[in-house]
Amino acid sequence: MTIVDNKKAFHDYFIEERYEAGMVLQGWEVKSIRAGRVQLKEAYVIVRQGEVFLFGAHISPLPTASTHIHPDPVRTRKLLLNGEEVKKLIGKVERAGYTLVPLNLHYTRGRIKCEIGLAKGKKQHDKRESEKQRDWQREQQSILKQNRR
To answer: Which of 47, 68, 79, 115 is the most buried (most CB within 10 A)?
Structure first.
């Protein structure tokens, strides 16, 4: 079940491969995510010293958060991946010029997972072309609906 999608990632990048990663979260973050108070719009993923981190994901603390905890909504969060997957991602990002972007947050067997994508940036003309394709698909659907009546 999807919690939040990063629609901007699909607009700005061609997604080549997808990986599912666990997240290291604090208790207040889990409660906020379950309440839907999370945003991935400006988030990105970086590989540093053989580990994968999520930067810029905004998780708003609930007003009922404990008084002795001072939550940081945009703190860096570690992503948990298989060692071989991390090595593969490091090679692609450093040599092939790919970027890692978070695509969505979802539940898998009650755990919160982050789907990350290995992506190449789109040029402006690519963005226009994909927008034309999307408009054409929408137009086809409306024509089919009219013909069925």
So the answer is: 79
